[in-house]
């Protein structure tokens, strides 16, 4: 985790020199939500620390969007508390949040510039400041040529850029983004990734959900995996991956089926076309495994593999589903 100062200088305040504003984290504390007999969330608990990019991943219907909507006050929890800066969220503090819903939350017949100015004014910016902020984000997100277009006439990717600009235009102190990378081309993904990194570097907590787990793995300081309304794993990607059982890939073309059976701490996962994938416990002896492989003939590959976040996610969800 990168170190960031406990205070930041906010230049958009009324003073010419700006004001010192304390950085604060977002806390989700034992949130539960039920729809009839369906449990949407059960004691959901985690925090997004100041200056942290927190990835929220789970299958469709796992409870990610419900959690975000409760954090924003769009939905009411049956129990539990959402806190920012150690205090329960109020209408006033919600105005300092930036929210990007998964579904489009824009007025389709409104022009891009007018829409962003309107959104900024809703969050309390004066007219001139709202125009400046809108123009800045239009330029930053590559929308300058589309600033006078109606949103409904934009491509889905450009609509997504406008949606992000709407979440950022009022210079929020917390960002909550639901599937922000959906529908974006690689260039737009890079732009959005850089924006999120800059926001966390300034001390802002960022919570975002995504099904693009390669992006989550690359960008996030920590990741929370949610399944059936419960947080089932929460840590840095490296810690989650290192806690999983390692795999050893052995390419020994002449090795017979079951050649690794009996080696302590080793379980064969698959074997095909001379390539064997082994699950290897920490106490297993790599040299003993290699010796057994060489006894069958030439060995073309002998490499240790830690599961990716996508593999880890599938394993965690499968384990939870079998319980």
TrEMBL record:
InterPro entries associated with the record: AAA+_ATPase, ABC_transporter-like_ATP-bd, ABC_transporter-like_CS, DrrA1/2-like_C, P-loop_NTPase
Family indicated by similarity: Belongs to the ABC transporter superfamily.
Highest taxon of the lineage: Bacteria
Alphabetical UniProt keywords: ATP-binding, Nucleotide-binding, Transport
Keyword RNA-binding: no
All copies of domain ABC transporter, residue ranges: 26-253
A Pfam family it matches: ABC_tran
SUPFAM superfamilies, sorted: P-loop containing nucleoside triphosphate hydrolases
Species, as recorded: Kibdelosporangium banguiense
Gene Ontology MF annotations: ATP binding
SMART domains: AAA
Protein name: ABC-2 type transport system ATP-binding protein
Top-level taxonomy: Bacteria, Bacillati, Actinomycetota, Actinomycetes, Pseudonocardiales
């Amino acid at each position: 985790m990168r170190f960031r100062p406990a205070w930041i200088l906010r230049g958009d305040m009324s003073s010419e020199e700006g004001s010192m504003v304390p950085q604060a984290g977002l806390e989700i504390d034992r949130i539960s939500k039920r729809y009839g007999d369906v449990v949407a969330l059960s004691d959901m608990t985690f925090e997004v620390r100041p200056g942290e990019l927190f990835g929220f991943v789970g299958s469709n219907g796992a409870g990610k969007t419900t959690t975000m909507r409760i954090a924003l006050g769009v939905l009411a929890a049956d129990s539990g508390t959402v806190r920012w800066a150690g205090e329960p969220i109020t209408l006033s503090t919600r105005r300092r949040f930036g929210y990007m819903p998964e579904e489009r939350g824009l007025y389709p017949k409104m022009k891009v510039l007018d829409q962003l100015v309107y959104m900024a004014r809703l969050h309390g910016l004066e007219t001139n400041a709202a125009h400046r902020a809108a123009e800045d984000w239009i330029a930053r997100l590559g929308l300058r040529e589309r600033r006078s277009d109606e949103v409904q006439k934009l491509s889905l990717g450009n609509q997504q850029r406008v949606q992000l600009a709407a979440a950022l235009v009022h210079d929020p102190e917390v960002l909550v983004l639901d599937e922000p990378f959906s529908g974006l081309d690689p260039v737009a993904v890079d732009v959005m990734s850089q924006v999120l990194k800059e926001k966390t570097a300034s001390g802002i907590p960022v919570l975002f959900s995504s099904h693009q787990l390669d992006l989550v793995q690359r960008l996030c300081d920590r990741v929370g995996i949610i399944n059936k309304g419960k947080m089932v794993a929460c840590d840095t990607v490296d810690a989650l991956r290192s806690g999983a059982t390692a795999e050893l890939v052995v390419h020994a073309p002449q090795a017979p089926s079951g050649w690794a059976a009996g080696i302590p701490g080793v379980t064969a996962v698959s074997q095909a076309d001379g390539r064997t994938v082994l699950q290897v416990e920490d106490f297993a002896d790599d040299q003993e495994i290699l010796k057994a492989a060489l006894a069958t003939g030439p060995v073309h590959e002998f490499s240790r593999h830690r599961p990716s976040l996508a593999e880890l996610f599938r394993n965690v969800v499968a384990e939870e589903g079998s319980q």
